Amino acid sequence: MFASHGNHTAAARRLGVSTRAVTYRLERVRRLTGFSPVDPTQRFTLETAVLGARLLDWPARPLDGQAGSDGRHDPFGLRG
Q1: Which residue among 20, 50, 55, 78 is buried most deeply as judged by most CB within 10 Å?
Q2: Residues 37 and 6 sit within 8 Å (Cβ to Cβ)
Q3: Do the Cβ atoms of 43 and 2 come closer than 8 Å?
Q4: What is the DSSP track for the chain?
């Protein structure tokens, strides 16, 4: 969606799904996060969050304060 600059049809084409599927997923994002991917400012906020998560290798690696796969906390990322 980000690469398509908010164009649902273009996003659907890039993802190989129907426009209806893109619209449904975007509404789900809005309900889960409270941010609307349709609004340019809120879409920027969501894109920034996604980029940050990728840079932190989340969810493959727990964030500070989150329990790892072994159930223990690793605030300094020393276990992996």
Answers
A1: 50
A2: yes
A3: yes
A4: -TTTTT-HHHHHHHHTS-HHHHHHHHHHHHHHHS--TTSHHHHHHHHHHHHHHHHTTTTTSPPTTSB-TTS-B-TT-TT-
Specify whether the backbone of 47 is left (phi greater than 0), alpha (psi in -120 to 50) or beta: alpha
Per-residue pLDDT tens, the chain, 80 aa: give them: 566 777 889 989 999 999 999 999 999 999 999 999 889 899 999 999 999 989 998 888 877 766 556 666 555 555 55
66 residue type, one letter:
Q
